[in-house]
Design brief:
Helices cover 28% and strands 19% of the residues. It contains 21 helices and 32 strands. The strands form seven sheets. Strands 1-2-3-4-5-6-7-8-9-10 form a ten-stranded parallel sheet. A seven-stranded antiparallel sheet has the order 25-26-27-28-24-29-30. Helix 6 links the parallel strand 15 and strand 16. Helix 2 crosses helix 3, helix 2 crosses helix 11 and helix 3 crosses helix 11. It starts with 5 loop residues before the first helix and ends with a helix.
Length: 802
């Protein structure tokens, strides 16, 4: 924008207009002068074809603008226009009109008189409605309307038969008119960041459509007609509350979405189904409660649950006469199971957080279980699909409520995740009807309950469930045969397998040469198989080391009932799945010809192993520097420290390529809260979890690279496995102070020109550069580009000298 005064800007504009008139010019630029309004003499430029008025302070245009009968391009963007003169409609030869980044709240009906207009740019204004006359722009090919306040389009939009690009993102659209399907040449529709709850089925008539951007809306499903758009190459659906099946199809790609929608179009059925998950400490009555909910007789001294038990039952929601099928998951409560339980936590689902009043809520760790659900299953971008938690006190007859739970405290901390509190007695059925009603009502409030799915999908799920009662696993060829019997093609069967795996109905990984051959119909079967390994005395005594032939003994133990034994053919599949879930890895034993062996990370020693000091002496070796970073795991909303169940176990498995024992397991150094790693000349690392924070120290000649890599791995794990948590990198204060300084804050402080910062622990000022010696902050993109340009200039000068 010019620094001229308004008078100087006006005088400059008059001079340019006079010069253009004398020369009979067809081009005039008055851009970036700082004009408030153009001189009326502008209307005398009868030969003018291009007029550039952008980048000024225009609040209005003179009516004489309408006299420019030969004008074909008019650039008015980046001004302060609130309205246009009606004479704008007289510019019959105008092909391009840019009005973006102004303050227009409405568009003149006279705009519809611009019969030759091909490009109309109106983004970044305050438009709330479009005139119906916009439908008269029969030659329009590009319409930019993004970043306004539009809630709908006039039905006359369907008259723009030449339109190829329609950009509507960053508005307030809730629906689109069905006439949008009348645009035969449309190739691109941008609709992200709106409030669309549905799309018209007529969108399936846009046979030339190539790009459809629907990110960040409120869509739960799509018109099945989209499956017929053969030219559609890009479909963006991130941050929408899609049905579980459609969401899973999206993860498989556009081809899967199209195939799913085509199957939906052939025949569909309503699916009233919800997942019911019982969580809590061991021996609080979860299994008895699930049994009571399904109407079974009371069993005294019920056996402890190993891993997970799953049952399918239905309740009746009396008020609405709706039958809802519940996929009930009963999780064993022992500490050793907690890490593996998280693999099966999903949303949307109903969770019963069960506790025993005789033991009290603290001993029953009610808040810890709820935190585990929140951090594993709650995606804040999809609040309607959040897990819904009912807190249930068992052994809670009418005269026995010996311990109370602070309901308000839990509601304050967990908000709308908690939907109610109940007392029940599974033996006498006290409070059971009220709990059933609450469960059914909660299920009815989940948007995905009552969703429409392809009939072939529902038929396949029913067949597989019935099959799983007799055969917990089948080959993929058998799965395909079942699909064919339901009229499902092999292509769709492949997509259905991926969706079923994503939703937890079965386990199948088609991208793994070993796992793709087998379909496990009972996912909980795997959990139980893992639980037998975790409980095995021999494996425990060996601190997680297990020979593969020992696994076969564990999984096919003749002392167990036939239905609790696993055939030999499945053993390598289970082992591969444990590796895929970061539960174990294969180790190298020193003995020649030693049997194949794996380490189950959850069973490593509780404390630092003997001899660890030899591998991590008190001081670094000569020539080595020591650098430390602390990965502070915090709640993203509150910033409060948060513990993540199983983080170190995952790190031990994922980073085993750096293990000291990668060539000889006996050289390994790892324990429940720490591990020592080595990356040759890149350094040796000591990682340990202390009070929820993960401390990473590296010693090397140049330790920054390995340190950065390890901290990035921790950050990636937190971001991808635990929702709602942040991994914030900090550096320690100078010894002997135990204070921490967040790296991001140090970098931002230095960029503001502040070179020292005060530690809140030792209360001393420290140079930021000395604290940041541990890390190499990534420069902003502007700095990186400047450095690149500087380097290019030096190369150019060198070439010129040469």
């Amino acid at each position: 924008m010019s620094d001229r005064t308004p008078l100087e800007a006006y005088a400059e504009a008059e001079l340019r207009i006079t010069a253009c008139k004398k020369s009979g010019g067809t081009f005039l630029s008055l851009s970036d002068l700082g004009l408030n309004t153009p001189p009326p003499e502008i209307g005398q430029l009868k030969n003018l074809r291009e007029l550039y008025l952008h980048g000024n302070c225009l609040t209005g245009l003179p009516p004489e603008i309408g006299q420019l009968q030969n004008l074909s391009e008019l650039y008015l963007h980046d001004n302060c226009l609130t309205t246009l003169p009606t004479e704008i409609g007289q510019l019959q030869r105008l092909t391009t009109l840019t009005l973006h980044n102004n303050r227009l709240s409405s568009l003149l009906p006279e705009t519809g008189q611009l019969q030759n207009l091909t490009t109309l740019s109106l983004f970044k204004n305050n438009l709330t409605v479009l005139p119906s006359e916009i439908g008269q722009l029969k030659k329009l090919t590009t319409l930019n309307l993004w970043s306004n306040k539009l809630t709908t389009l006039p039905k006359e939009i369907g008259n723009l038969l030449q339109l190829t690009e329609l950009h509507l993102y960053d508005n307030c659209f809730t629906t689109l008119p069905k006439e949008i399907g009348l645009l035969p040449n449309l190739t691109t529709i941008g609709l992200h960041n709106n409030q669309l709850t549905r799309l018209p089925s007529e969108i399936g008539q846009l046979l030339k459509l190539k790009t459809l951007d629907l990110d960040n809306n409120l869509l739960t499903t799509l018109p099945t007609e989209i499956g017929q758009l053969l030219n559609l190459k890009t479909l963006q659906l991130r941050a929408n509350p899609l049905t579980p099946e459609l969401s899973a199809a999206c993860k498989e790609g556009l081809a899967a979405v199209k195939a799913y929608l085509r199957a939906h179009r052939i025949a569909q059925i309503v699916l009233n189904e919800a997942k019911l998950i019982l969580i809590g400490e061991g021996e609080v009555g979860k299994s008895s409660l699930l049994s009571a909910l399904r109407g079974d007789e009371w069993v005294e001294n019920r056996k402890t649950t190993h891993g997970v038990e799953v049952d399918i039952r239905s309740f009746i929601l009396l008020d609405f006469k709706t039958e809802i099928t519940f996929n009930g998951w009963d999780f064993g409560g022992q500490n050793i199971y907690r890490h593996t339980h998280q693999l099966f936590f999903t949303a949307p689902a109903i969770y019963l957080a069960v506790w025993n009043p005789r033991r009290g809520p603290e001993q029953c760790c009610v808040d810890e279980w709820i935190k585990m659900v929140r951090h594993r299953a709650y995606d804040e971008t999809r609040p309607d699909d959040r897990p819904r938690i009912l807190i249930v006190a068992t052994h809670g007859g009418p005269h026995e409520r010996s311990a109370h739970i602070d309901q308000q405290l839990l509601r304050d901390e967990f908000g709308d995740l908690i939907v109610g509190f109940h007392h029940v007695d599974s033996k006498t059925c006290f409070g059971l009807d009220e709990l059933k009603t609450a469960i059914a009502r909660t299920a009815a409030s989940i948007p995905s309950v009552g969703r429409s799915v392809p009939k072939s999908w529902k038929n396949l799920v029913d067949v597989l469930r019935n099959r799983s009662e007799k055969e917990p696993y089948i080959s993929y060829q058998q799965f395909q045969a079942i699909c064919r019997s339901q009229g499902i093609t092999d292509e769709l069967a492949n997509i259905y397998a991926a969706i079923l795996n994503e939703l937890g109905y079965l386990i199948h990984y088609r991208d793994d040469a070993e796992l793709q051959k087998t379909v496990i119909l009972k996912p909980e079967w795997l959990s139980k198989a893992i639980s037998y390994v975790l409980e095995d005395k021999t494996v425990g005594e060996q601190n997680g080391l297990v020979q593969h032939n020992r696994l076969s003994t564990i999984w096919d133990d003749p002392q167990r009932a036939a239905w609790e034994r696993y055939p030999t053919a499945l053993h390598p599949v289970f082992l591969k799945l444990m590796e895929r879930f970061d539960l174990s890895y294969r180790v190298v034993m020193p003995q020649a010809g030693a049997p194949e062996t794996s380490l189950v990370a959850q069973l490593v020693p509780g404390g630092r192993p003997d001899g660890w000091e030899r591998d991590w002496p008190d001081i670094p070796a000569a020539g080595d520097a020591q650098r430390t970073q602390v990965c502070c795991i915090v709640d993203a909303k509150t910033g409060k420290p948060a513990e993540v169940e199983g983080l170190l176990y995952r790190l031990i498995v994922r980073l085993h390529r750096y293990s000291l024992g990668r060539n000889n397991y006996l050289d390994s150094r790892h324990w429940k809260t720490g591990v020592i790693l080595d990356d040759d000349y890149n350094g040796r690392a000591f990682i340990e979890e202390l009070a929820g924070d993960v401390h990473v120290t590296v010693r090397a000649a140049y330790p920054e690279r390995f340190l950065s890599h390890l901290c990035s791995e921790i950050e990636w794990l937190v971001d991808h496995f635990w929702k709602g948590l942040d991994c914030r990198h900090s550096v320690p204060c100078h010894a002997p102070c135990k204070g921490l300084h967040e790296v991001k804050g140090l970098v931002e402080t230095k960029r503001e020109g502040i070179l020292k910062i005060r530690c809140s622990v030792c209360e001393k000022f420290h140079a930021i550069d000395s604290l940041l010696a541990t890390v190499t902050p990534k420069p902003p993109i502007e700095e990186a580009l400047a450095e690149l340009k500087k380097g290019q200039m030096e190369i150019k000068r060198g070439m010129e000298k040469g």
